[in-house]
Write a structure and sequence with these properties.
Layout: H1 2-29, H2 33-48, H3 55-68, H4 74-91, H5 95-107, H6 114-127, H7 133-149, H8 154-164, H9 168-187
Helix pairs in contact: 1-2, 1-3, 2-3, 2-4, 3-4, 3-5, 4-5, 4-6, 5-6, 5-7, 6-8, 7-8, 7-9, 8-9
Amino acid sequence: GSAVAVALGKGISDALGAEAGVDKLQASLGLTETEAAKIGDAASGAYRDAWGSSLGEVQQVAGELFGSFDNLGADALEPLTGQAIALGDAFGVDVAAGIQTASELVSSGLAENAEEAFDLLTRGLQEMPPAIREELLAASNEYGDFFADLGISGEEGFALLTEAADGGVYGIDKMGDALKELTIRGTDMS
């Protein structure tokens, strides 16, 4: 009997925590109640699939994804939430930074959608030396628009960044700065 009471109490506590997380999403993102409930459902599904260490963490990731990508439907949100958490877990990068970088890849045209952006990040991080993986995120944010301006695809840009990683952080910056200067010189008519 006491085990049933404990389980019932935990279930009620978890439900209240889930509701509080949805309310927080609604307030922080300025969502309607229906939109917040859809994000909450996607987060709950991702959490049931064993992503994240708590429902609150998964709700936060789902909210960050929803706020970072235009026209992201609730059906795409659940798998992307798992993909964002997996990126952070596998490579030791900050999940919010990974989401922000993926969003930049889409807005600069280097990736067609969020799923492709996370795939590019995953492949790029696999190719980077572990000690400088965070640098891939920073470099793609800093130089992504220049890649797009020069007609370099996301795959080509990440290949350049990972190849430049042989020279460490300095090599990445040197390659990125060279492309930036080429873009500036090519467009300022000098």
